[in-house]
Amino acid sequence: MVGDPASEDVHVEIRDLRFARGTRTVFRGLSCRFPRDRISVVLGASGAGKSTLLRVIACLEKPDAGEVWIEGRTEVTALPERKARAFRRTVGMMFQSGALLDSMSVFDNAALPLREHTRKSEAEIREEVRRIFDAVGLEDVEGLLPGQLSGGMVKRAALARALIFQPELLLCDEPFSGLDPTTQRLVEDLLVEVNRKFGVTMIITSHHIGSTVRMADHVVLLTEGTAVEGRPEELRRNTDARVVRFFEDAGPTFLDVEEARRQAQAPAGGGAGA
Amino acid sequence: MSASAVPWLGAAAIRFVVDLGRLGRFTLGVLDTLRSPPVRVGRLVDELFQVGVLSLAIITVSGLAVGLVLGLQGYNTLVRFGAEESLGAVVGLSLIRELGPVLTALLVTGRAASAVAAEIGSMVMTQQLDGLRMMSIDPLDFVVAPKVVAMIVVMPLLSGLFIVMGLFGAYLVGVVLLGVDPGSFLMSLESAVEFSDDVLGSLLKAFIFGILVALIATYRGYTAEPHAAGVSAATTSTVVVASVTTLIFDYFITALWGV
Asked: Is B217 within 8 Å of B119 (Cβ atoms)?
């Protein structure tokens, strides 16, 4: 369990981020921090800017103002495109839709970064991809096209591709969307396992409060273009009107943190095809 | 013109200029990827197949049909003046200088360019291009450039095929069905058509149309709004803009270079 992010080793720090899409303001001076090696969940209503925040961190979009610092050393919003390209190689990103190339097999999708950026032999690439597939629980799907996979398998394949370079920072955009509850729990468990096994800093966007409570070490709530952050228990006690309103709207799930954590200890149900 | 139309026209003009600027930047980006390795031979071959080989049937059938009609109409007109022996020259010049490259460009736009725009647009919608960016792979290099090169390469070849099939169709109608002397048909064709002016000019036209159609299709797909309606709009826009641009450029190439 993470302590106060202010006193922890901070991996990603957002400072006074401002972002507008057309006439709509998404962030108005958003600041927050994501601790190293922990699972941080970014919560927020639809349109709150969760995916945009990940895209800004990944240098896929430039904010109007503000800074994104990685390990206090690199200010990624100021990087020119060539350096941004090199930076992205150190970050894994699991997109909401999977973003797998639908004209390539699952194996080729995962192998693509290695083929593009390393001089590894085909045998070495095969070994590397198999190792990652084992880690995320992908079996017997190497030759299939992404369109032939179930939703859960697409998430696993996307996760495998994101992990292929063993990034220190993994961004997961809505990894539970479109999944049934059982598969959702399996993906949750998988992400927690990957976090523990690879020691990777994870920033996950979600609007599933139950999942958030079960897996988050640190929560960032996006509301009204700004952020409120803390441990799940801290947010539960937070009396900020924005936080209270969000959780009132969301329902009672978030209030019972201990119950949610107890659920997390229970083994997930079976789910072929996840 | 009413006063309310002025702002609308101004906004449309600004949009057009901005779009043109973006297309220019996009083109420079594609050129930049082409001059640096890696050369993606496998992807280029795939695209040559998609754009070229899969267009063979439509080009063959259309070329033949146009030749048949041209032969028939040409014969009916020429026979009034007792000049039916010139059928080969009339049909040949029409096909080689105008109809071959222009109709091929329009057919390729309808069959292949629209598919290219839809494919790239779908990749935008499903975040596949962002996925490539996150792997430090430039989508212009990986996705766009092979499609552009393939379309530029196949356009003159398909145009050549269209012309040959058109001539064959006109020969069938003129010589086999209507009794024009085969020697006269071929002799008038040979004497009327100049290799350097007509044939090379025709290939040049097709090459330029290939560049235009390829850039418009890939640009429209690349800048598609990331939703179903956006992809649909990009596809429609590709067909309309590429077709009109082809016809306008055809006039200017003909007027300026006499091709």
From this structure: no
